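Kindly go through the following sequence and its backbone structure tokens. Advise at your convenience whether the structure tokens fit the sequence:

___
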Amino acid sequence: MTIRDHFKRTQMWCTYGLAAILIGTALAIRFLHPKLPRPDILMVGLGLAAVAIVAVYFVTRRIYRCPRCGVGLNQLRAQTIGGQNKDRRMFWEIWNACPNCQLSFDAPWPK
């Protein structure tokens, strides 16, 4: 497995895992508390969304690092391309290597 494949697989698992957790929590709230008023359900949902966004931010800071030099590739992408850029591609779709140490994303993932 290459470094690029590892990052793609990690993104897929994070996306599916987050969706499963949010849907499962929403269903649990709905079925465990069926008489909860709609505004309360909305507030719980907004709170869960805020917690999920913060959790995803910290998880991606940790998992999207260069295996050689340890630089945060998402942060480096935001600094290089700009935070308000409309280009939503991930760093492995833009670069072929780490901009810091030039480790190719097509190199094997270190075990």
Remarks:
- The mean pLDDT is 84.
